[in-house]
Amino acid sequence: MQEAFVGIWQAAARFDPEKGTEATFVTMIVRRRLIDRHRKTGRRLETASLEEQPAVAEKHTKQVEILEEAELVRRRMADLRPDERRVLELAISEGMSQSEIAEAMSLPLGTVKTHARRGLLRLREMLEADPVDSSTGAKP
Q1: CB 106 within 8 A of CB 124
Q2: Contact 9, 33 (CB under 8 A)
Q3: Topology of 59-129 in CATH?
Q4: Domain limits of the chain?
Q5: pTM here?
Q6: In whole angstroms, what is the distance from residue 99 CA to residue 97 CA?
Q7: Distance (Å, rounded) from C-alpha 81 to C-alpha 126?
Q8: Closest Cα to residue 15, out of 32, 27, 2, 3?
Q9: How sure is the predictor about 100, in pLDDT bands with cuts at 50, 70 and 90?
Q10: What contacts 57, CB < 8 A, 6 or more positions away?
């Protein structure tokens, strides 16, 4: 606020009543000050302290592990029976409920539940039988 008043005081000699009202003149000066301040804060670089670095590295490592696990699950889902795979894809990727899946696939709700359960069990068995080392992405 103080900067705005100082700016108005310093620019008072440039005020021309033929170009606009006092309110317009004041508004333009304050607007320019706000834009300058916004630009100035936008140029500041954000830095992280050295103590924060291990936490950042740990976060990225965890994200990589999750992506590797997701890729492995995607590959194993291809080995499921088509109905089981489709039910799980609709539930996971599309966020559909079992009732919505039953309607979309024209199947009884009980059949959808069975496909989902069997598909998840088979997927778990495949993942347990073929684990991947999360640190290297390779089989142990």
Answers
A1: no
A2: no
A3: Arc Repressor Mutant, subunit A (1.10.10)
A4: 2-43, 59-129
A5: 0.50
A6: 5
A7: 13
A8: 27
A9: very high
A10: none
